[in-house]
Amino acid sequence: GQQLNQSPQSMFIQEGEDVSMNCTSSSIFNTWLWYKQDPGEGPVLLIALYKAGELTSNGRLTAQFGITRKDSFLNISASIPSDVGIYFCAGGPNNAGNMLTFGGGTRLMVKP
Amino acid sequence: DSGVTQTPKHLITATGQRVTLRCSPRSGDLSVYWYQQSLDQGLQFLIQYYNGEERAKGNILERFSAQQFPDLHSELNLSSLELGDSALYFCASRIGWATGELFFGEGSRLTVL
Protein backbone atom coordinates (compact mmCIF):
# COMPACT_ATOMS: atom_id res chain seq x y z
CA GLY A 1 0.00 0.00 0.00
CA GLN A 2 0.92 3.65 -0.14
CA GLN A 3 3.34 4.89 2.50
CA LEU A 4 3.91 8.38 3.76
CA ASN A 5 7.14 9.21 5.51
CA GLN A 6 6.77 12.19 7.79
CA SER A 7 9.78 13.82 9.40
CA PRO A 8 10.96 14.69 11.87
CA GLN A 9 9.11 12.43 14.30
CA SER A 10 9.50 15.01 17.03
CA MET A 11 10.91 18.47 17.55
CA PHE A 12 11.71 20.44 20.68
CA ILE A 13 12.20 24.10 19.94
CA GLN A 14 12.42 27.46 21.61
CA GLU A 15 9.50 29.85 21.42
CA GLY A 16 9.98 32.24 18.53
CA GLU A 17 11.85 29.77 16.33
CA ASP A 18 10.63 28.71 12.91
CA VAL A 19 9.67 25.07 12.32
CA SER A 20 9.73 22.95 9.20
CA MET A 21 8.39 19.45 8.69
CA ASN A 22 7.75 17.40 5.59
CA CYS A 23 6.13 14.35 4.12
CA THR A 24 7.36 12.24 1.25
CA SER A 25 5.73 9.45 -0.65
CA SER A 26 6.69 6.87 -3.22
CA SER A 27 3.36 7.54 -4.95
CA ILE A 28 1.85 10.57 -6.59
CA PHE A 29 -0.89 12.36 -4.69
CA ASN A 30 -3.59 14.70 -5.94
CA THR A 31 -4.24 16.26 -2.56
CA TRP A 32 -2.11 17.11 0.45
CA LEU A 33 -3.69 17.97 3.76
CA TRP A 34 -2.08 19.12 6.99
CA TYR A 35 -3.75 18.53 10.35
CA LYS A 36 -2.91 19.45 13.94
CA GLN A 37 -3.96 17.30 16.86
CA ASP A 38 -3.96 18.61 20.41
CA PRO A 39 -3.69 16.04 23.22
CA GLY A 40 -6.93 14.11 23.62
CA GLU A 41 -8.60 15.95 20.75
CA GLY A 42 -9.41 15.19 17.16
CA PRO A 43 -7.22 16.34 14.27
CA VAL A 44 -8.07 19.80 12.99
CA LEU A 45 -7.52 20.69 9.35
CA LEU A 46 -4.92 23.44 8.95
CA ILE A 47 -4.24 23.66 5.23
CA ALA A 48 -5.45 21.84 2.11
CA LEU A 49 -3.43 21.76 -1.12
CA TYR A 50 -4.82 20.64 -4.45
CA LYS A 51 -2.28 21.60 -7.11
CA ALA A 52 1.39 20.76 -7.66
CA GLY A 53 3.54 23.72 -6.72
CA GLU A 54 0.75 25.36 -4.76
CA LEU A 55 1.89 27.42 -1.76
CA THR A 56 -0.80 28.25 0.78
CA SER A 57 -0.65 30.17 4.04
CA ASN A 58 -2.88 30.16 7.09
CA GLY A 59 -1.58 32.78 9.51
CA ARG A 60 1.90 31.76 10.61
CA LEU A 61 1.57 28.43 8.79
CA THR A 62 2.67 27.89 5.20
CA ALA A 63 2.42 24.63 3.28
CA GLN A 64 3.51 23.64 -0.19
CA PHE A 65 2.48 20.89 -2.57
CA GLY A 66 5.70 19.57 -4.11
CA ILE A 67 6.22 19.84 -7.84
CA THR A 68 6.76 16.08 -8.16
CA ARG A 69 3.43 15.55 -6.32
CA LYS A 70 5.25 13.15 -4.02
CA ASP A 71 5.99 15.51 -1.18
CA SER A 72 4.73 18.40 0.88
CA PHE A 73 6.11 20.56 3.63
CA LEU A 74 4.67 22.65 6.43
CA ASN A 75 6.42 25.65 7.94
CA ILE A 76 5.45 27.41 11.14
CA SER A 77 7.00 30.80 11.68
CA ALA A 78 7.70 32.42 15.06
CA SER A 79 6.41 29.48 17.09
CA ILE A 80 4.38 30.05 20.24
CA PRO A 81 3.53 27.67 23.10
CA SER A 82 0.06 26.90 21.72
CA ASP A 83 1.68 25.41 18.60
CA VAL A 84 2.43 22.35 20.73
CA GLY A 85 0.77 19.23 19.38
CA ILE A 86 1.08 16.55 16.75
CA TYR A 87 1.05 17.57 13.11
CA PHE A 88 -0.11 15.05 10.55
CA CYS A 89 0.16 15.17 6.80
CA ALA A 90 -2.31 13.25 4.67
CA GLY A 91 -2.13 12.46 1.00
CA GLY A 92 -5.07 11.92 -1.30
CA PRO A 93 -4.32 9.50 -4.14
CA ASN A 94 -5.04 9.82 -7.85
CA ASN A 95 -7.92 7.39 -7.56
CA ALA A 96 -10.68 9.34 -5.91
CA GLY A 97 -12.09 6.18 -4.46
CA ASN A 98 -9.01 5.43 -2.41
CA MET A 99 -8.54 6.64 1.10
CA LEU A 100 -6.36 9.35 2.50
CA THR A 101 -3.02 8.08 3.68
CA PHE A 102 -1.77 9.66 6.90
CA GLY A 103 1.81 10.24 7.89
CA GLY A 104 3.04 9.10 11.28
CA GLY A 105 2.95 12.61 12.71
CA THR A 106 5.46 15.16 13.97
CA ARG A 107 5.27 15.88 17.68
CA LEU A 108 6.12 19.52 18.31
CA MET A 109 7.14 20.79 21.71
CA VAL A 110 7.78 24.50 22.30
CA LYS A 111 9.78 25.78 25.21
CA PRO A 112 8.62 29.20 26.41
CA ASP B 1 -15.72 22.90 16.63
CA SER B 2 -15.71 20.70 13.51
CA GLY B 3 -19.44 19.99 13.68
CA VAL B 4 -18.82 16.24 14.03
CA THR B 5 -20.15 14.87 17.31
CA GLN B 6 -18.97 11.67 18.93
CA THR B 7 -20.26 9.89 22.00
CA PRO B 8 -19.22 8.74 24.48
CA LYS B 9 -16.01 10.71 25.03
CA HIS B 10 -14.61 8.10 27.38
CA LEU B 11 -15.45 4.47 27.87
CA ILE B 12 -13.90 1.90 30.20
CA THR B 13 -14.85 -1.72 29.85
CA ALA B 14 -13.54 -5.22 30.37
CA THR B 15 -12.11 -7.76 27.96
CA GLY B 16 -14.72 -9.79 26.16
CA GLN B 17 -17.32 -7.05 26.32
CA ARG B 18 -19.03 -5.20 23.48
CA VAL B 19 -19.35 -1.44 23.04
CA THR B 20 -20.99 0.91 20.56
CA LEU B 21 -19.52 4.25 19.56
CA ARG B 22 -21.75 6.86 17.99
CA CYS B 23 -21.05 9.60 15.47
CA SER B 24 -23.14 12.41 14.06
CA PRO B 25 -21.55 13.94 10.97
CA ARG B 26 -21.52 17.62 10.06
CA SER B 27 -24.82 18.87 8.74
CA GLY B 28 -25.02 18.03 5.05
CA ASP B 29 -22.15 15.54 5.02
CA LEU B 30 -23.03 12.16 3.54
CA SER B 31 -19.74 10.34 4.15
CA VAL B 32 -18.64 9.05 7.51
CA TYR B 33 -15.22 7.57 8.17
CA TRP B 34 -13.96 5.70 11.22
CA TYR B 35 -10.31 5.79 12.30
CA GLN B 36 -8.43 4.13 15.13
CA GLN B 37 -5.49 5.78 16.87
CA SER B 38 -3.54 3.70 19.34
CA LEU B 39 -1.21 5.32 21.87
CA ASP B 40 1.35 7.52 20.12
CA GLN B 41 0.40 6.03 16.78
CA GLY B 42 -0.93 7.46 13.56
CA LEU B 43 -4.46 7.25 12.26
CA GLN B 44 -5.53 3.87 10.93
CA PHE B 45 -8.49 3.88 8.56
CA LEU B 46 -11.19 1.40 9.52
CA ILE B 47 -14.24 1.92 7.33
CA GLN B 48 -16.20 4.47 5.29
CA TYR B 49 -19.92 4.82 4.72
CA TYR B 50 -21.57 7.02 2.15
CA ASN B 51 -25.28 7.77 2.34
CA GLY B 52 -25.99 4.59 4.25
CA GLU B 53 -23.86 2.23 2.18
CA GLU B 54 -20.43 0.83 2.98
CA ARG B 55 -17.99 2.50 0.62
CA ALA B 56 -14.53 1.37 1.62
CA LYS B 57 -12.91 -0.89 4.15
CA GLY B 58 -9.52 -0.56 5.72
CA ASN B 59 -7.83 -2.56 8.44
CA ILE B 60 -11.01 -3.31 10.32
CA LEU B 61 -11.09 -6.45 12.43
CA GLU B 62 -13.89 -8.96 11.97
CA ARG B 63 -14.89 -8.32 15.58
CA PHE B 64 -15.69 -4.73 14.58
CA SER B 65 -18.63 -3.63 12.50
CA ALA B 66 -20.26 -0.37 11.59
CA GLN B 67 -23.37 1.02 10.00
CA GLN B 68 -24.79 4.33 8.85
CA PHE B 69 -28.44 5.04 9.49
CA PRO B 70 -30.98 6.90 7.33
CA ASP B 71 -30.43 10.08 9.38
CA LEU B 72 -26.70 9.68 8.46
CA HIS B 73 -25.42 9.10 11.96
CA SER B 74 -23.09 6.14 12.26
CA GLU B 75 -22.25 3.58 14.88
CA LEU B 76 -19.09 1.54 15.31
CA ASN B 77 -19.59 -1.72 17.18
CA LEU B 78 -16.61 -3.35 18.83
CA SER B 79 -17.11 -6.84 20.25
CA SER B 80 -15.09 -9.48 22.10
CA LEU B 81 -12.87 -6.66 23.21
CA GLU B 82 -9.19 -7.26 23.85
CA LEU B 83 -6.64 -5.18 25.69
CA GLY B 84 -5.12 -4.13 22.39
CA ASP B 85 -8.37 -2.51 21.32
CA SER B 86 -7.73 0.30 23.77
CA ALA B 87 -7.39 3.38 21.59
CA LEU B 88 -8.92 6.62 20.47
CA TYR B 89 -11.61 6.07 17.85
CA PHE B 90 -12.31 9.00 15.57
CA CYS B 91 -15.17 9.66 13.28
CA ALA B 92 -14.72 12.05 10.37
CA SER B 93 -17.13 13.30 7.76
CA ARG B 94 -17.23 15.05 4.44
CA ILE B 95 -19.90 15.93 1.92
CA GLY B 96 -18.96 13.55 -0.89
CA TRP B 97 -17.61 10.04 -1.18
CA ALA B 98 -14.36 10.87 -2.97
CA THR B 99 -11.09 11.46 -1.16
CA GLY B 100 -10.60 14.96 0.19
CA GLU B 101 -10.76 17.11 3.29
CA LEU B 102 -12.05 15.26 6.33
CA PHE B 103 -13.49 16.91 9.42
CA PHE B 104 -12.85 14.96 12.59
CA GLY B 105 -14.81 14.63 15.79
CA GLU B 106 -13.13 14.82 19.16
CA GLY B 107 -12.93 11.07 19.46
CA SER B 108 -14.03 8.35 21.83
CA ARG B 109 -11.33 7.05 24.14
CA LEU B 110 -11.83 3.35 24.80
CA THR B 111 -9.97 1.66 27.62
CA VAL B 112 -10.21 -2.12 27.88
CA LEU B 113 -9.13 -3.54 31.24
Describe it for me?
The complex is a heterodimer of chains A (112) and B (113). Chain A has 112 residues and is mainly beta. Chain A contains no helices and 11 strands. Chain A has strands at 4-7, 10-14, 19-25, 29-37, 44-49, 55-58, 61-65, 71-76, 85-93, 101-102, 106-111. In chain A, the strands form 2 sheets. In chain A, strands 2, 4, 5, 9, 10 and 11 form a 6-stranded mixed sheet that branches. Chain A has a 5-stranded antiparallel sheet with strand order 1-3-8-7-6, with no helix packed on it. In chain A, strand 6 and strand 7 (61-65) form a beta hairpin. Chain A starts with a strand and ends with a strand. The model of chain A has no long low-confidence stretch (mean pLDDT 91). By secondary structure, chain B is mostly beta strands. In chain B, 0% of the residues lie in helices and 50% in strands. Chain B has no helices and 11 strands. In chain B, the strands form 2 sheets. In chain B, strands 2, 4, 5, 6, 9, 10 and 11 form a 7-stranded mixed sheet that branches. In chain B, a hairpin with an 8-residue loop joins strand 9 and strand 10. The radius of gyration of chain B is 13 Å and the shape is globular. Chain B starts with a strand and ends with a strand. The chains are: A mainly beta (112), B mainly beta (113). Chain A binds chain B through residues 30-31, 33, 35, 40-45, 48, 88, 90, 92-93, 95-100, 102-105, and chain B through 2, 4, 33, 41-43, 45, 48, 56, 58, 90, 92, 97-107, 109.
H/E order of the elements of chain A? EEEEEEEEEEE
Largest sheet of chain A: 6 strands, mixed
Strand content of chain B: over 45%
Q: What characteristic shape of chain B results from the CA principal axes?
A: globular
Estimated helix fraction of chain B: under 10%
* Class computed from helices, strands and strand pairing of chain A: mainly beta
Beta strands of chain A, count:
11
Which chain pair shows the most residues in contact? Answer: A-B, 25 and 24 residues
Instruction: State the end-to-end distance of chain A.
Output: 40 Å
